[in-house]
Amino acid sequence: MYYPALNFESRQEIWRGFLSRLEGSSAKQLLESGELQSIKDEGINGRQIKNIVRTANAMAVQRGDGITFEDINMALTAIKEFDAAFELAQVMDKESLAEPEGPGNKRRRLY
Domains of the chain by range and CATH? Predict the structure, then answer.
């Protein structure tokens, strides 16, 4: 499903919404610290923000600590790398489907 990029105010509201649901004071401190300002220009959508917060929180829980900006940044990097790899795979798939069939270029059916 496609989600359009959000403006800064909308992203901030979504960050606040997801972080405020976390237990402990570290999420509140993260919001108040202003550190999220450094990623304000990232063109991410609400689904990606949700996934970033969930991933960052899982890392913090695994560590036995509260969520930090480093957790957020690491999860953001992972999401961006995944999205880039997924886009590349889609392009490669489209290119392979566009290749003409011939004696030396048979397509495999996946079904």
Answer: 8-97 (1.10.8.60)
Terminal alpha carbon distance of the chain: 24
- The confidence score (pLDDT) of residue 76 equals 95
Q: Are 6 and 14 in contact (CB under 8 A)?
A: yes
- Picking from 69, 10, 78, the residue whose alpha carbon sits closest to that of residue 38 is 69
Angstrom distances, CA of residue 51 to CA of 25, 27, 44, 86, 104? 20, 15, 11, 16, 44
pLDDT at 41: 77
**Predicted structure pTM score:** 0.75
Residue 110 Cα distances to 44, 45, 85, 107, angstroms: 33, 32, 21, 9
Residue stretches of the chain with pLDDT short of 70? 3-5, 97-111
Distance separating alpha carbons of residues 28 and 68, to the nearest angstrom: 10
